[in-house]
Amino acid sequence: MAHIEVHTDLTLDSPVLVEGMPGVGLVGKITADHLVETFEMTHYASCYCDGLPRVAVYEAGNRQVRQPVRIYADEEHDLLVLQSDVPVSPQAAPEFATCIAGWFAQEDVVPLCLSGLPGEKDGRPDLYGVGFGRGEELLAEHDIDTPTENGMIRGPTGALLAEACEQGLDCIGLVVQANAKFPDPEAARVILVDAVEPIAGVDVETDSLVEQAEEISKAREKLAKQMQQADEESSQAQPLGMYQ
Known about the structure:
Blueprint: E1 3-6, E2 16-20, H1 27-38, E3 42-48, E4 69-74, E5 79-84, H2 93-107, E6 110-118, E7 127-132, H3 134-141, H4 155-166, E8 171-178, H5 185-200, H6 207-229
Parallel strand pairs: 2-5, 2-6, 6-8
Antiparallel strand pairs: 1-3, 3-4, 4-5, 7-8
Helix pairs in contact: 1-5, 2-4, 5-6
């Protein structure tokens, strides 16, 4: 049966939840992982939702097997993070969204759903927000821009927003320009600084994300040179690094 299993007893008061499903530029996942690491957040709950891949995950230096989609908590900041190690297929997204949004309603959670918008960036990535209920008020209160064009949020993040709206829950969708081919820590940093910090009332260290952006930029240049130098008829495999 689909459910969210809470592992530890923490006191949370209408917490903000940052959703970090994999997507364009991995902006959601980078943001979620950074928050969990920065605040040393507690593994609060595991998600047993229909539609999630039946896999077991583990991490270096730890023997414990975990569910691929988990919720972490920071009691001091009334902050939750939905961290995912797997994508959710479009076919499974509605079932997953129903499971998660139902828990949001029970726990009085305000979700921040994150999505990357593929496209060329000229300088700092643009960010805009959409929402429902009090989510719209929070966006206006913190001067987060409205969309400049019509659009649609797809996949599990879009399904989650749609389900939250259907249930009449307060919710926010944040859309940031992001690289469609590579992880984009710069876009994740914009989400953290311009939206997560003011809405959740937290102060997040982001210097390490800037360093990642520089590392990825250098890796892209190296890859481009390799592609230019490669013989068109050759076929080979070689390690290119984690961001390629």
